[in-house]
Specification:
Layout: H1 11-17, H2 19-25, H3 28-45, H4 47-50, H5 91-127, H6 129-144, H7 147-161, H8 171-198, H9 202-209, H10 214-222, H11 227-250, H12 262-270, H13 279-305
Length: 311
Amino acid sequence: MLAEKVRKPSLIARFLDSDIGWSFRRTPAAWLSALMLALLILTALLCPLIAPQNPHDLAQIFIDKAEIPPIWAADGEWPFLLGTDPQGRDVLSAILYGTRVSLIIGFAAVVVSMTLGVTIGLVAGYHGGRIDNLLMRLGDTVLSIPTLLMAILVSAIFRELLPPNLREPFAAVVLVMSISLTNWVQYARTVRASTMVERRKEYVLAARIIKVPAIRIMARHILPNTLTPVMVAATLNLGLAILSEATLSFLGVGMPITQPSLGTLIRIGNQYLFSGSWWLVVFPSLQLGLIVLSVNLLGDWLRDALNPKLR
């Protein structure tokens, strides 16, 4: 009789059996924030299927349904659960579509800034000398300018370089570049410090002796040993990237009204706050707050779980 084939545990099972998985299961704030973030991301991705209305489709917008209060108010109407705006758009649908825009820009900005920062940090820490000094002084220059002002400056430069007819279609790309070029320094400094430690170890010295190319040493030997603090920083910076996008959109230099993010919806709703249509600004603000809170709680847990001094 042949021995039964041993089934390998799934990725989720291996995670739950690890030290981080044990910490995750024993920390209510971690799994509650992860569950909330997963729910927010899922509803944003599935918004075409679950939203009562497509706020970008003019055929589904009726001006006679403008400024209807939430469903629990005396003048509320079904299916507008959170009311409508002055153009007759369903607020819940606009929030779901706006959340998708904010999340995509936030994730893209983190990926771009992390890639840029990790690359610069590896090069600076591995080569040292003048290259290190030049790259780190560039980072100090970026940090010397307030983050918001730097993002506005970069956004203005990119917008001026684009033809007027391409500014709205490429508004998301401009925002990603604006946020990324102001947030890469933290990754670069973190990776540089780890690289300067790793490059003196025996496995790196052995690779250099046998003439392994520097790019391969950095990518295959040093980089995997520097990813732990990078992943923690990326998780924490996701909330900051989403907030930066919302701030820029609120100031009018982010996403346009035709492609509204949560920041754009808050800016529009703020104009009607004192006219009685409070739901136009309150509900997008609550959605933004839930996203950032979930990301920050998850990032705080990950930082503590990966800290060997706290185990």
